[in-house]
Specification:
Layout: E1 12-15, H1 20-27, E2 48-54, E3 57-71, E4 74-86, H2 95-107, E5 114-119, H3 124-129, E6 133-134, E7 139-143, E8 147-150, E9 154-159, E10 171-173
Parallel strand pairs: 4-5, 7-10
Antiparallel strand pairs: 1-2, 2-3, 3-4, 3-10, 5-9, 6-9, 7-8
């Protein structure tokens, strides 16, 4: 009988901060680590950060913040999720699921009834598997100098509470996207 210890399951921790160096630790040094520079959009930094370390290295991250929105003309708030990243060599191990689950667990304590994120089309199947739903409507987001822009990425939402249902109507984010 062998005495091989079982591998330690990854643990998600709340990060006190998340810097450019942390992002580079996960995704490497790139001018466009998320592949969204083509949008030309200005993005907000997240306020709360969650990560996973492996062998002392940060290998996964997700961040969030509360954002004001109007859905169908009615003002409310959502928890914006962004900066979701898993180091290329660690992908396919369920780390995105783990870090997002911890992030959404915290989001449930923040008040809003839904979380919202923006993603590139190839990531839609991943987020669908994780319980997110794509919106079929355009989403307007604020940009510098008072400009409104139509979000060119796919907008996805997930309820934060069992009885939460996304209302119908156009969506406007009253901030830069996250």
């Amino acid at each position: 009988m062998s005495e091989n210890p079982s591998p330690v399951a990854p643990t998600v921790v709340r990060l006190a901060q998340y810097t450019k160096a942390d992002q580079e630790e996960i995704l490497g040094d790139s001018d466009d680590p998320f592949g969204v520079a083509w949008t030309g959009l200005t993005w907000l930094p997240k306020e709360d950060h969650f990560g996973i370390r492996h062998d002392g290295r940060l290998v996964a991250h997700a961040g969030l913040l509360r954002l004001p929105v109007a859905i169908g003309g009615t003002g409310t708030e959502v928890v914006g999720v962004g900066g979701v990243a898993v180091a290329p060599g660690m992908q396919g191990r369920g780390l995105a699921r783990l870090v997002l689950a911890a992030t959404l667990e915290h989001a449930r304590t923040m008040g809003p009834r839904h979380a919202l994120l923006f993603c590139r089309p190839p990531l839609v199947p991943l987020y669908r598997r994780l319980g997110w739903h794509p919106l079929d409507k355009d989403v307007l987001v604020e940009q510098p100098r008072g400009r409104l822009a139509t979000m060119p990425l796919r907008t996805m939402v997930t309820p934060l509470h069992d009885d939460a249902h996304w209302p119908p109507g156009p969506v406007r984010l009253f901030s830069f996207p996250m």
